[in-house]
Amino acid sequence: MEYEISFGLYPGILLGFRSYNETLKITHVLYLPFVDVALTIFKQEE
Questions:
Q1: 39: nearest Cα among 31, 24, 30, 22
Q2: What is the DSSP string of the chain?
Q3: Residue 1's pLDDT is what?
Q4: Phi-psi bin for 34: left (phi > 0), alpha (psi -120 to 50), beta?
Q5: Residue 46 scores a pLDDT above 70
Q6: Are 3 and 39 in contact (CB under 8 A)?
Q7: Is 20 in contact with 27 (CB distance < 8 Å)?
Q8: What is the pTM of this model?
Q9: Please, are residues 29 and 37 in contact by the beta-carbon 8 Å criterion?
Q10: Cα 31 to chain center, whole Å?
Q11: How much is the average pLDDT of 31-41?
Q12: How do the domains of the chain map onto residue ranges?
């Protein structure tokens, strides 16, 4: 299982959690005021 963690900044105040399900990966993002933390998990090809 391959994964990556990334951090980002955005202009605003938001609290929450969201998942993005794409063809080759799933990204879970935690939103805190002005900062987001993303965990991307790459799907294995079968």
A1: 30
A2: -EEEEEEEE-SS---EEEEEE-SSEEEEEEEETTEEEEEEEEPPP-
A3: 85
A4: left
A5: no
A6: yes
A7: yes
A8: 0.86
A9: yes
A10: 9
A11: 97
A12: 2-42
